[in-house]
Input
Amino acid sequence: MIKYEFKNSEIELNWFNYSYLTNTSTDFIEVKCGNSFETIFESQNGLQKVEVENKRITISHLNFNGTEPKIKRTENVCRYEINYKEVTSHEMYQKYLKEKESKTENDLNSNLVEFLDNPIDLLNFKKKKGMKFTTGVTSGTDYYYQPKIKDSIFYVYYYPDFKKESIKIDQFVVFKHGENKHNYEDKTETLIEFKIFNPDSDLGKANLYGLTKAELESKFGTDYLTFDNGIAYSNKNKILTIELNNSKVKSFRYIKLNTEIIDQKLIRQIVE
Output
């Protein structure tokens, strides 16, 4: 479930968007301007975008082929006009491309851009760990960055430490090729992903475990997507998803993707 939020001094809006692949629940939007929320829209996978601007809530949705949302559409809520806009999936894609072209790295927090480009010195990290690891070959995922190089492979490194916070094991996935591809100290390998479930000073600047949401926003900014129990930062073909518990980092995941189009469908696939 992906959850998008909007909040100002007048209203609070939540958009709940479920994956049709794993959940039959309907998508819905709720608004609060007093002591309780009111559902203003509900549909089965047709909801595309919600925008709030100048006392107007614009709800973009696909054609329902004659079916109506289960909840009756209202003309206004909390003195905000509600505008329903029917769109096609192609229109939404074109709008995404236009917004992407107008957004440059200068619009993003420089610390975020730097972190996503180079989150960790992996060779230095591995030297600190010594031989305290296990390794294996993995098939990767459909969304992994994978250069078209013959005789290449994905390796995964596991770093177990049962004295840490979580029983889950921190892991790193790398892309390897060439004569040193089976060498642990291969300097040509490319970092593809890491999943961190524990605090670890050896991670250097990637030691995000335990940071508060406020500290993350101070470090990386507030330009992120919000999902069920966390947030996701991205730039170009790199993404950082962060699981929160009581507004503190419980785990996080970095991935180098095979696309720069980080859309709603891809976010669902990654976080579920």
About this structure: The mean pLDDT is 83. The CA atoms of residues 213 and 247 lie 5 Å apart. Residues 2-102 form one domain. The chain has five helices and 16 strands.
